[in-house]
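User
Take a look at the entry that follows and flag anything odd:
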Amino acid sequence: MRASLTQPALIGGVVMGVLSALPIVSVGNACCCLWVVSGGVVAAYVLQQNQTAPITPGDGALVGLLAGLFGALVQAVLSLPINLIVGPMERELMQRILDMAGNIPPDIRDALERYGRDGRNGPLLILGRIVAFVFWLCVAAVFSTLGGLLGAAMFRKPAAPPGTIDIPPAG
């Protein structure tokens, strides 16, 4: 009987989504999509732990794919409140950098000031969120599937030897 993929995929997706949404921790994704791959690996690990038979590479890939899709959703949902909290600090930092840097060309200075003023509200924010979510879906689908394959290879249980039947001696 095949184990359900929902629980392992949700666990792997939450791992991927939370680590990818945190401001400083998310830098790990710059290194070969570390957290995205890790979500697939975690999903494959949980899947293997939930069943006695060894998982196949196909099972690992499928649970990794599902973990990536769930993870993209988690990342999108968590990044909204985090950006609302961190956004004002980011704009203040940008303003301080602009104040300290005296010899920035005027067109770059205008673009940075406009970003700080307009970049976090209005229709562009909504469009940016939609584009970012679609991007995350694509990236997460590919790299978490690879993570699921990797996890299936790393955590695969050895196949059980053929069973023997104990037959009591006659007499």
